Amino acid sequence: MTLTLYHCPDWASTIIRLALEEIGQPYQLHDMDWDAGDFDAADFRAINPLGLIPALKTPDGPIFETAAILLWLNARHGGLAPAPTDPARAAFLSWLMFVSNTVHPTVMALIHPDRPAGPDAAVEVARLALERLAEQAGHLETLLTTQSPLWLTPAQPALGHYLGILLRWAAYLPEDLNLRFSLAPFPAVTATLSAHEATPAARRVSLADGLGPYPYTAPEGPP
Ligand SMILES: N[C@@H](CCC(=O)N[C@@H](CS)C(=O)NCC(=O)O)C(=O)O
To answer: Which residues have a Cβ under 8 Å from the Cβ of 161 and sit 6 or more positions away?
Structure first.
C-alpha cells in the first residue's frame, strides 16, 4: 500500500509522520514549499481543497484533517488508539475531538494571533489564547491524574503525539517570551509527553524533522 504524506518539518504533518513511524507503515514524503506556492497549486488543491497539511494520499483516496487521518490509520493498521470495538474508544474519541477542535485552534491563535484579529489586536488575542490553553491543559492534567487512560500512553500513541506537537509550538513559537505556554504547572501532562518523545519512532522523527532531543518537554525549532 503506497501512502504519500504532504509534509513540512514541524508543521501539523509531523503528527501524521509520527503516527506512520509508530505503526511502521512505509510512506513517501511529498515536501511542501510555502514560498514556492505549493499550497495553492492545483495538484495539491485536488488532494486537499482547503490547501492545508497534513494531507495523505492513500489507496482509498486523499484524506485531510489531522484527526481524520489518525482515525483512518488506526482503523487500517491498529496500534495508535483504541480499536473500533474497544469500549475505551468512547472516551478516546471525545478527547481526540477536544484536542482537534479546541486545543489545536487555540494554539493556532496563540502562534498566529494576527490571522483572526489583524495586527492591532494580536497581543490581546494571544494573551486570551494562552489563558484558554492553560485551562485546556488543566482539563488534560485532571484526566491524566484521575484516569490515566491507555490511549494517552506510548502503547496507543496517536493522541499523545498530537498533543506533544501542539504544545511544543505553544512553548517556543510565540516571539513574546511572556506569551509562551509552559508545561511546568502540568506535571502529569509533562510526564505523558516525556514518555511519548522517548519512543523510537519519536526519536526518528525528531532527528528527521530537526525537532531536537526533547521535542515536547524542551522544544527547539528546526535549524
Ligand atoms: N484543521 C487542520 C489544520 C491544519 C493546519 O492548520 N495546517 C497548517 C500547517 S500547521 C497549514 O497547512 N497551513 C498552511 C496555511 O495556513 O495556508 C488539521 O487538523 O489538519
So the answer is: 15, 18, 19, 22, 196, 202
In the structure grid, which three cell numbers stand for residue 6, read together? 504532504
| Neighbouring C-beta atoms of residue 205, cutoff 10 Å | 26
CA of 87 to the centre of ligand 1 (A): 31
> Alpha-carbon distance 117 to 95, whole Å?
28
The model carries a pTM of: 0.97
52 pocket-lining for ligand 1 (C-beta < 6 Å): yes
Number of domains in the chain: 2
Would you call 5 helix, strand, or coil by DSSP?
strand
The finding on whether 16 has its CB within 6 A of some atom of ligand 1 is no
Instruction: Give the ligand 1 atom nearest the CA of 53.
Output: 12
Q: Which three cell numbers stand for residue 103?
A: 486545543
Q: CA–CA separation, 13 vs 17, rounded Å?
A: 6
69 and 94 co-located in one domain? no
What is the rounded CA–CA span in Å between residue 129 and residue 152?
24
Structural domain boundaries, residue 180: 89-199
Task: Give the span between the Cα atoms of 151 and 13, in whole angstroms.
Answer: 20
Pocket test for ligand 1, best of 53, 110, 161 (most atoms within 8 A of CB): 53
User: What are 133-162's pLDDT values in tens digits?
Assistant: 999 999 999 999 999 899 999 999 999 999
